[in-house]
User: What shape does this take?
Amino acid sequence: MPRIKLQLLFGPLRSLIGRDEIIIEAGDFKEVIDKLVQSYGKVVERIFCAERKKGHPFHFLIINGRSYAIEEVLGMKFNNDITLQVWPALDGG
Assistant: This one.
C-alpha cells in the first residue's frame, strides 16, 4: 500500500489534527479522506468536499511538486509513495 506523506501547511485541517505532517497508507485520495474521517471526524469531509462529494473550489493540492485542483484528485489512484501538500484558500484581500 502506498505511503502518503500528508503535509498540512496551514488552515483548518492542520488546526484539527494538531500536526503539520502525518503518514497515511492509502491507494487513492478518497481513502486518504476516509482514514482522516475515521481518526478526526466528519468535519474532515466538510473541509475537503462539498455536500455532493465535489471538491471544495478553494483547495489546491500539490502532489510530488505538481499542483492540482481538488476535483482533479478525487478519483486519483496512488501506485507509489507520494508527498501530498494541502493548500487551503487564503481569506481576506
